[in-house]
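Hey, sorry to bother you again with one of my protein questions. There's a protein on my desk that I can't quite get my head around. No rush at all, and the record is pasted right below.
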Amino acid sequence: MLLPLLPLVRWSAVLAICLVASETRADAGTNPRANPRTNPRADYLLHCSGCHLADGRGAPPEVPTLIAALGPIVASQEGRDYIVRVPGASQTPLTDEQLAQVMNWVLTNFNADTLGTNFRPLTGNEVGKARRRVLADPVRYRKTLWPEYD
């Protein structure tokens, strides 16, 4: 008797997921990016966890871990630029401000113990400037920036 209801239950679940996902974006309107209401954790799960997994683990050596490793990297401007220039980050459909919030979430949730005392969160403006400079060979650049990783 429940078998005919199964497709309805599936579509209801899909609709619920879509509604939750859209809730983390903007209020209804003609420009969904005009007034973003972001949820950095949800954006991380949607746009980053495919490679770095939900808990920040990567698949070394190809995909670096995001856990307790980024503090020393973001201590330099080159490192701050690098983490938003890697293709998986720079090519997301997130706005510059949303990507900055995701990266700050990653840094404060997965790397809090490795961040320097002078750490300052990334800004949308900073992310936008970095994203405009395409990183053609992220692995080679990573080796120069983060030699102890490889």
